[in-house]
């Protein structure tokens, strides 16, 4: 009988992260929180936080919408620890116990960080991202939640980092002509994810955003499209035709512990 290995992160997994890199320190803090999360979430949150960190100087404010346990914001704060920016607002309509456990654990590992972090219980539709120098982000925003997140960024003149999830023509909150265009693309053989995300890209560009679509490595998560967008000087254009949306190649993963390789 094969040995059963838990796919959930255990406190004892801290033994895999004994180094002094920022990834090791953050992984230990995550393990110490005793959060019952799938191991792959450690890798996907770290990879996305690293991508965001490597792209640009930290903004004044990050609003992590649909943040769940909020790990992404803690990773981003840790990566930006040498800077006085950003302040992170984790927003979710429900704050799970795991969010408090992560706050305690990251506060112990990085005492300066909790002062820069707030958890706000609110609906994504009520996010007001106006005020300048703000990044709205969401990892695995299910269905039409992705469209609420896009509208929060567009309405606030903020930058965006979005990993859409649970693609569905039924739940997407798009204009009817965009839904119709996505449906046509699917009928023409396109994948549902790319058809809907293609319309999201077109909508963002129409609103004057400059979009850069990339991917998280597929071995971390199959729902791996990452839409980066920022208010730009490009002339807004209107289109609903499907276009290829991907530019840059995916980044490499931080090496997971060898015992995990078959689990991610
Ligand atoms: C799939 S989870 C993603 C959590 C986290 N970003 C992650 O990747 O681990 C989706 C989250 O969206 C939250 N959510 C769903 N609808 C929401 C809404 N309208 N406003 C705010 N949060 C919402 C849920 O409570 C849940 O925590």
Automatic annotation (TrEMBL):
<dbReference type="InterPro" id="IPR025714">
    <property type="entry name" value="Methyltranfer_dom"/>
</dbReference>
<dbReference type="GO" id="GO:0005737">
    <property type="term" value="C:cytoplasm"/>
</dbReference>
<dbReference type="InterPro" id="IPR029063">
    <property type="entry name" value="SAM-dependent_MTases_sf"/>
</dbReference>
<protein>
    <recommendedName>
        <fullName>Methyltransferase domain-containing protein</fullName>
    </recommendedName>
</protein>
<feature type="domain" description="Methyltransferase">
    <location>
        <begin position="55"/>
        <end position="168"/>
    </location>
</feature>
<dbReference type="Pfam" id="PF13679">
    <property type="entry name" value="Methyltransf_32"/>
</dbReference>
């Amino acid at each position: 009988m094969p040995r059963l290995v838990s796919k959930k992160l255990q406190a004892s997994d801290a033994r895999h992260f004994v180094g002094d890199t920022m990834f090791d320190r953050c992984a230990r803090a995550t393990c110490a929180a005793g959060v019952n999360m799938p191991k792959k979430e450690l890798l996907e949150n770290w990879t996305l936080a690293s991508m965001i960190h490597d792209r640009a100087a930290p903004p004044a404010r990050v609003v992590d919408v649909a943040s769940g346990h909020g790990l992404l914001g803690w990773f981003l704060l840790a990566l930006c620890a040498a800077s006085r920016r950003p302040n992170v607002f984790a927003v979710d309509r429900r704050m799970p116990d795991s969010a408090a456990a992560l706050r305690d654990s990251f506060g112990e590992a990085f005492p300066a960080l909790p002062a820069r972090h707030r958890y706000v219980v609110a609906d994504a539709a009520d996010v007001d991202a106006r005020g300048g120098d703000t990044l709205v982000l969401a990892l695995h925003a299910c269905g039409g939640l992705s469209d609420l997140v896009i509208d929060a960024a567009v309405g606030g003149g903020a930058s965006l980092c979005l990993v859409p999830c649970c693609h569905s023509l039924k739940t997407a909150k798009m204009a009817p002509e965009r839904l119709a265009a996505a449906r046509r693309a699917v009928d023409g053989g396109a994948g549902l994810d790319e058809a809907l995300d293609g319309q999201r890209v077109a909508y963002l560009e129409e609103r004057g955003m400059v979009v850069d679509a990339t991917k998280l490595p597929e071995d971390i998560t199959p729902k791996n499209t990452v839409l980066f967008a920022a208010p730009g000087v490009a002339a807004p254009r209107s289109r609903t035709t499907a276009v290829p949306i991907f530019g840059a190649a995916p980044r490499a993963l931080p090496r997971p512990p060898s015992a995990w390789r078959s689990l991610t």
